[in-house]
Amino acid sequence: FGPTFRAENSHTTRHLSEFWMIEPELAFATLEDDMQCAEDYLKFCLQYVMTNNEEELKFFDQFVEKGLIERLNKVIQTPFRRVPYTEGVAILEEEIKQGNVKFENKVEWGVDLASEHERHLTEKIFNGPIILFNYPKDIKAFYMKLNSDGKTVQAMDILVPRIGEIIGGSAREENLEILDQRIEAC
Questions:
Q1: Which of 136, 160, 180, 181 could cross-link to 129 by cystine, CB 3.0-4.6 Å?
Q2: Reduced to 3 DSSP states, what percent helix, strand and coil does the chain have, rounded to the nearest 5?
Q3: What's this model's pTM, rounded to 2 decimal places?
Q4: Separation between Cα atoms, residue 34 and residue 21, nearest integer Å
Q5: Given this model, what pLDDT does residue 164 score?
Q6: How many Å separate Cα 26 from the centre of its chain?
Q7: Given a cut of 70, is residue 14 above it in pLDDT?
Q8: What is the crossing angle of helices 68-77 and 54-63, to 10°?
């Protein structure tokens, strides 16, 4: 748990350049372990707030955002759907093709999805939180574990309605030879 600074360009105004971040390191963990840990942790945090800040949440529910408590309970109670990046992009492309939506940002395999894409998937398609995983290697860091297809890495983002990405993570490459090759390719 510590301070973080990021200087990369972002496709959203929701990414902070300075913040405190929790970065658990899970030895011998798979991407599935990472996804489950992130889902469990987010639900634990929300349940803690629901239990220990009931008065504040009721205030916000009444005066700031009606339906907030119901939304938080839905996140806690709903198993997060796991959706491969490739499937998510195909769904968005089909939505465009069918005329159901028009996005400001381009949608095609290989792009880093924008907040509008993430929110559409969670709010209109799945109506709840999802975990998007197995992103294209070219839009992720070199140290993320490469999948056997050679095109994607074992990375994941938890996306929730009305917010978009709330947690990101990945399995890390542990083989020094592969890491050296990947960093040289960058």
A1: 160
A2: 40, 20, 35
A3: 0.89
A4: 16
A5: 86
A6: 18
A7: no
A8: 120
* Rg, Å, the chain Cα set: 18
CA quadruple 114, 119, 125, 131: dihedral sign: positive
129, 78 contact by CB (below 8 A): yes
Sign of the CA dihedral with 18 first, then 24, 28, and 30 last: negative
Cα(112)–Cα(129) distance, rounded to whole angstroms? 19
Strands 81-84 and 18-21: unpaired
Measured N-to-C along each axis, helices 68-77 and 31-52 cross at an angle, to the nearest 10 degrees, of 140
* Ramachandran angles phi, psi of 98, nearest 5°: -75, -10
Of 157, 154, 114, 141, nearest in space to 11 by CA? 114
Query: How far apart, in Å, are the Cα atoms of 35 and each of 69, 133, 156, 181?
Result: 24, 9, 7, 27
| CB-based contact 76:47 (threshold 8 Å) | yes
* Two structure tokens written together for 155: 């990375």
Edge-to-edge order in the sheet of strand 164-170: 81-84, 130-136, 152-160, 164-170
State residue 4 phi and psi, 5-degree precision.
-135, 145
pLDDT tier, 144 (very low <50, low <70, confident <90, very high otherwise): very high
